[in-house]
Write a structure and sequence with these properties.
Phosphorylase Kinase, domain 1; 2 domains; 13-stranded mixed β-sheet; eight-stranded antiparallel β-sheet; 17% helix; globular
Length: 410
């Protein structure tokens, strides 16, 4: 989030898609596939289906050809085209706790390939079109299970009951995915879901591996994000298929606000986009929060009203933006909240020119007389504008009218 002020249209949408799929559990899916006619497994309570999936013998590895569909953005709202916006085909490899997802751009559409790699808790997204590697840490709640163990049925039931307090969870619906008996579950937020309607996940009834992931916007019967694969093969995966050689000069952007600052070039820090950090994190500095404390560290006036479009302010946090201090202000709770990123505008941005790349531009808007641009997606809106030497990025799973009103309220 710290780098949204400089990310192009294409990269914003690609990262939004990746973030949503990570939240849905799709990025850790071993194999993803379309629905198909065929035998279905016997009915089973959800907790039992989950327990049996976790106890199933682990596959030595999986490889598949995949297809990615992205309907986040209405093509009519953007100038230019890109396979990440309209969808792409590719391949997937997975073994143990490592995964590589390759989305291949078609030559006639232009653009470059995108590589998504997961190695333990380290997530990397390599965008060849922009020659940039984005890195983040996928945090896990709770203590990891011991190797070879699985949660008890009682523990799974307790976890599902807790999830049921925040979301509507369907049962394990017998289904068939890619010709294999599977169970499908649907999860929808009860409150503060923003524009998110639901997430559907399916897994192999015998092997326990995920088979399909789809994200739906509120009020829509068609998924806005979907991963599916064909030609699925189970078996050992070569280590070379789980890594990507990053060209010299590739830029590395660390998207984890709590991570140590990355000052290395892509040629030094990104030899393998999916590799773990060479050293463990040491003790971190305490994060600076609060209106007065953060405002005193900025070289520009902090805009942090107590409420914004009716949402109460939750937190004001100091963030590092390319070595310069910035502020992250959040409003509301849950997916229906709004985040505001404030930073000193860069000279080249004030002069225009932008960083959209690939022939794409965002629709222009005016925010209280200031020039701005807006990205409207099925799951949320991003508004960016500059005023008096300060750049503001407003984003949330809200309609454009709400994001624009929030921008005007700053």
């Amino acid at each position: 989030m710290s780098y949204l002020r400089r990310i192009s249209t294409r990269r914003i949408v690609a990262l939004c898609a990746a973030a949503v799929l990570v939240a849905a559990g799709a990025i850790t899916a071993i194999a993803l596939a379309t629905g198909d006619d065929g035998p279905t497994p016997p009915p089973k309570p959800l907790a039992e289906a989950v327990r049996d999936a976790l106890r199933a013998p682990a596959a030595p590895g999986v490889s598949a050809r995949i297809e990615f569909k992205n309907r986040l953005v209405d093509a009519a709202s953007l100038q230019g085209s890109d396979p990440i916006l309209t969808g792409a085909t590719g391949r997937l490899w997975a073994s143990a706790n490592r995964l590589r997802l390759e989305l291949q751009a078609s030559p006639e559409r232009g653009g470059g390939d995108v590589q998504v790699l997961l190695d333990g808790d380290r997530l990397s997204v390599y965008d060849s079109a922009s020659s940039t590697v984005y890195r983040a840490v996928v945090k896990h709640d709770g203590k990891p299970e011991r190797a070879g163990s699985a949660p008890s049925l009682a523990r799974i039931e307790k976890a599902l009951a807790a999830l049921g307090q925040r979301a509507t969870v369907s049962g394990a619906t017998p289904s068939n995915v890619a010709g294999r008996p599977a169970y499908t579950v649907r999860v929808a937020p009860r409150n503060d879901g923003g524009l998110l309607g639901s997430v559907q996940l399916a897994w192999d009834a015998a092997r326990g591996v995920p088979l399909r992931a789809a994200v739906y916007a509120s009020g829509s019967d068609d998924p806005v994000l979907e991963l599916k694969a064909t030609d699925i093969a189970f078996g050992p995966v070569a280590a070379s298929d789980l890594t990507v050689a990053i060209p010299s000069g590739t830029k590395t952007v660390d998207l984890d606000p709590g991570a140590e600052a990355d000052t290395q070039s892509g040629s030094e820090a990104g030899k393998q986009a999916g590799s773990k950090a060479g050293t463990q994190r040491g003790s971190r500095e305490r994060r600076l929060t609060g209106v007065k404390a953060v405002g005193a560290k900025l070289g520009f006036p902090l805009a942090a009203p107590a409420t914004l479009v009716g949402l109460p302010r939750q937190e004001v946090r100091l963030v590092d933006l390319d070595g310069s201090p910035g502020a992250l202000v959040t409003y509301g709770k849950g997916l229906g909240g709004i985040a505001v990123l404030e930073s000193k505008a860069q000279p080249q941005q004030d002069k225009g020119g932008g960083s959209e790349g690939a022939g794409q531009t965002l629709p222009k808007i005016s925010v209280n007389g200031a020039s701005g641009e807006e990205l409207d997606t099925a799951l949320g809106t991003v508004v960016r504008f500059r005023r008096a030497g300060v750049e503001y990025t407003v984003l949330g799973s809200v309609p454009p009218a709400a994001a624009e009103a929030a921008a005007r309220g700053l």
